[in-house]
């Protein structure tokens, strides 16, 4: 375990004074110790300026339990008893050499490190210094969103890694209590009205919040997502490890008020499910499913319209459709925002 002195200068009128931050960094390679970070981790996550739901312990701890695809190598940075930085990484052994990757990769639409506000650059430098003590041939940070703390990672021994566009995340700006009338294109509003009318012709339509009962909701989501993707790759939940991950994560997310789960029913039949998140002023549409027998009633569209309206009512300013350039997202008026991918090779760090 190495101690580091970092001394960023802070201005005070004409006179310059210095505030010395003494950081202690460590590599956590034990799953129990990783999970024991949760209370301090939640505090850091709540204060981090760039955090999304994909960086919280309710998401990443279940991910590691379900997948654990390599050797855990999480980097924690402390100032006294305060956790001021966290970079959940792991080492994946490949024939070409070990790669340092973020915990949560693949199923997380945004990946980043967490840094305490006001000292992001110093904490990111401490993370880089500790990462250089790990034996990796490549260090990859994919899916960094705009403004990510990970962009601040720098070190004298690290040349600037390759930075490229990685994935498009269509995002819809929303505002006001009547977001559907103001923010959604007219064509989509007409399609949504037709969907509601078609559903009402089939029976009594009801949209129900379901995050209070995560297990029952997820049972419906598994059934409907599987039905939607049957014969077309079967969907992400066909992987037993992915299902187990979500079954662990969803109750934890719901307990923290982050989950937004909705079901739509026609008469007594649940025909659509929507799984998303809400954090600060942003809503995230993560996953859904619907009964193909009710495709003409567009239960997926009905649920997205409802989710947008509810997100606006809760004060969201953006509705994020997350990764993927599926045509339906642009029909709602969403515009691409790109994540970035940064890669360092060990040769750069020599």
UniProtKB/TrEMBL annotation:
What Gene3D superfamilies does UniProt report for this protein, alphabetically? 3.40.630.30
Against InterPro entries, the record matches this protein to: Acyl_CoA_acyltransferase, BioF2-like_GNAT_dom
- Organism, by scientific name, is Mesorhizobium robiniae
Q: Which SUPFAM superfamilies match?
A: Acyl-CoA N-acyltransferases (Nat) (SSF55729)
- Taxonomically, which superkingdom? Bacteria
- Give me the segments passing through the membrane: none
User: Which residue intervals define the domain BioF2-like acetyltransferase in the entry?
Assistant: 187-329
The molecule here is called CelD/BcsL family acetyltransferase involved in cellulose biosynthesis
């Amino acid at each position: 375990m190495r101690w580091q002195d970092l001394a960023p200068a802070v201005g005070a009128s004409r006179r310059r004074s210095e505030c010395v931050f003494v950081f202690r960094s460590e590599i956590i390679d034990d799953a129990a110790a990783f999970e024991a970070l949760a209370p301090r981790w939640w505090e850091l996550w709540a204060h981090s300026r760039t955090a999304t739901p994909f960086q919280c312990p309710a998401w990443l701890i279940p991910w590691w339990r379900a997948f654990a695809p390599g050797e855990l190598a999480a980097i924690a940075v402390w100032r006294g008893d305060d956790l001021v930085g966290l970079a959940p990484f792991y080492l994946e052994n490949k024939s070409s050499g070990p790669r340092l990757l973020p915990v949560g990769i693949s199923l997380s639409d945004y990946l980043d490190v967490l840094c305490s506000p006001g000292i992001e650059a110093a904490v990111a430098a401490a993370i880089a210094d500790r990462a250089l003590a790990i034996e990796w041939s490549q260090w990859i940070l994919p899916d960094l969103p705009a403004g990510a703390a990970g962009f601040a990672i720098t070190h004298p021994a690290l040349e600037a890694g390759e930075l490229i566009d990685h994935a498009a995340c269509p995002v819809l700006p929303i505002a006001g209590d009547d977001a559907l009338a103001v923010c959604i294109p007219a064509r989509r509003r007409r399609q949504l009205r037709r969907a509601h009318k078609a559903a009402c012709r089939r029976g009594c339509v009801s949209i129900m919040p379901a995050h209070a009962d995560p297990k029952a909701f997820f049972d419906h989501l598994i059934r409907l997502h599987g039905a939607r993707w049957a014969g077309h790759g079967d969907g992400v939940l066909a992987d037993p490890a992915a299902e187990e991950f979500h079954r662990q994560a969803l109750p934890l997310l719901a307990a923290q008020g982050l989950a937004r789960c909705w079901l739509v029913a026609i008469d007594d039949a649940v025909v659509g499910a929507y799984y998303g998140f809400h954090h600060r002023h942003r809503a995230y549409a993560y996953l859904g499913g619907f009964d193909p027998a009710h495709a003409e009633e567009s239960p997926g569209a009905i649920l997205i319209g409802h989710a947008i309206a509810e997100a606006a009512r809760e004060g969201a300013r953006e509705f994020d459709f997350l990764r993927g350039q599926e045509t339906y997202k642009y029909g709602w008026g969403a515009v691409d925002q790109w994540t970035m991918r940064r890669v360092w090779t060990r040769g750069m760090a020599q």
